[in-house]
Amino acid sequence: MAQVSLDDVLRKVHELSGDHVDADAPLLESGLDSVGAAELGNQLQQQTGEELPATLIFDHPTARQLAGYLQRLGVETGRPSDTPAGVHGAASARVCGLALSARLPAGPRSAADVSRAARCGADLVCDALLERGAAADGLKLDGMPREAALRVRHGGLLLDIDLFDAHCFRISPAEAAAADPQQRLLLEVGYEALHGGGSARLQLLGSLTGVFVAIAASDWAEVVKDSPLAHSAYAATGSPHSIASGRIAFALGLHGPCISLDTACSAALCACHICNRALQLEECALGLVAAVNLILLPAASIACALAGMTSARGHCHTFDQRADGYVRGEAVGGAAMQCTSAPVRPAFTALASCVRQDGRSASLTAPNGQAQRALLRTALNSAGLVSERLESAEAHGTGTALGDPIEMAALRGAVLEDGHERAYTLVVASIKACAGHAEPAAGASGLIRLAPALAQGFVSPNAMLRVLNGHVDAALKDTLLGLPVQLCPRQARSGPCVGGVSSFGYSGTIAHALCEGASAAIINSQNETTSIRYTRRRFSWSTAPHPFGREMGAGSSADVQAMRSPMIGPLYTAVADHVVQGR
């Protein structure tokens, strides 16, 4: 049989299409039509002397994959296995997190950045209406009760969500413009996690890698419905959540399980739980867990405000007496996971996870302390741990007067009252106090805060805690359970540190994950690793309003436009030092 090289395939494609194509781009998207694809198959069949299938170009859609297939012809004996070598027997091994990637509000772009923000107790929340110009897009708060209007104003917002490196993922500008920004961010952050875990593009291509995505927000379909993007050839794939995971698998050529799921606030940990099981059952050799949440429109914020869920003070005052609800936040997170008995420099080890349901609680959205307690105990039993090993907990911690005491009482009942004597204080904190509640991505944000902290010699503070909620104080009475309010050293104890992350969905689906920290040397080494350098361009879907023109003022006409803006935010910054007529 005559050998066919990659250069041979590229030359034939060029002759048939007239274009020079990328070796890793789908041939049918690179100028080769169906007639050309059939002719390419005929020419390759003549050159190899082998009977080639009619579906050749669909089974091996890129030039590199096609050349690889042709080079293996006649060499392999028997049917190739779909399970990579070394996967068998992995079910008895622990699942390891190879690397983490992240985007959090106001700038953090890596797990190391998130860790620094948590150590500082940073306030990453802003005035969402001014930042995104929601008022200029038609948001009217005048008819709402004053307190409800206050609950809409604030949010934890990501920076530059309209930037994307389409070329890196071989996506045309037209397709990138029509895609939900959540899909674009998942691609970048997901690949960062896989790359950080040691997987290069060529290694991922055709691999049995699973993709498990937590996603809930559906603002994009509403954003583009009256714009030209709604009539794009790519509109059908721009908004669906199923495409959020499918696009990652397609762009990287992954063949493992591919799932998008929404269990509200617990979605990220549920995705992690499903990924762990898929790895242990050998359904995939590598797993990517990714989660995203963006706030593109105010409608969901208004609904939460009217229901009294969000905070009029504009922060998650977790465990504080000021707790009056949560503030909505944006986030993207990724984790590359692998099941192996000999992990290579893991960022953390996933010991166990559990997913349950609140069942018949006080109301559909109300938490259930008994269900939370059973969830925590089951996770500990699954990991084979006594509660005394649990040293740190990332609380769900939304900052609600009802939810915080229930969660703390459940934690006390599951961990501190199980008959095991404790010699060390269980410290509890929540990233929501810094960055807001990222809803489906909340569990990912919590894991990204907790995992590096387990390897380092410090305990992060509870950022918004000033005066303890009286009901939380009652739950803490006579227990070794602490809520630090400043950066403090980790307790002196031997062995790896174990921590847990909780996420409780307002749908009633609740989840908890236990993990073990890596060594500080590994974490420091990973933080020094050069990150991917994206060449991002802007794909804007709306024009940002001028800070001096938030709303049309009285006297506006076709010839004259009078604008007005509240004397806060960008306008105040611009004119604060000006002197006009001596004032």
What does this structure look like?
It is a single chain. It is built from 22 helices and 19 strands. With 583 residues, it is of the alpha/beta class. A hairpin with a 4-residue loop joins strand 15 and strand 16 (509-517). The protein has an 11-stranded mixed β-sheet, sandwiched between helices. Residues 76-91 have low confidence and may be disordered. The chain starts with 5 loop residues before the first helix and ends in an 8-residue tail after the last helix. The longest helix has 16 residues, at 181-196.
Write the layout of secondary structure elements.
Blueprint: H1 6-17, H2 34-48, H3 56-59, H4 63-72, E1 95-103, H5 111-120, E2 126-127, H6 128-132, H7 146-153, E3 154-155, E4 163-164, H8 173-178, H9 181-196, H10 201-204, E5 209-214, H11 219-224, H12 235-238, H13 241-252, E6 258-261, H14 267-280, E7 286-293, H15 299-306, E8 331-339, E9 348-357, H16 369-383, E10 390-394, H17 403-416, E11 426-429, H18 432-435, H19 442-455, E12 458-459, H20 470-476, E13 481-482, E14 488-489, E15 498-504, E16 509-517, H21 520-527, E17 537-538, E18 551-552, E19 563-564, H22 570-575
Parallel strand pairs: 5-6, 5-7, 10-11, 10-15, 11-13
Antiparallel strand pairs: 1-8, 1-9, 2-3, 4-17, 7-8, 9-16, 12-14, 15-16, 18-19
Helix pairs in contact: 1-2, 1-4, 5-19, 7-15, 9-13, 16-17, 17-20
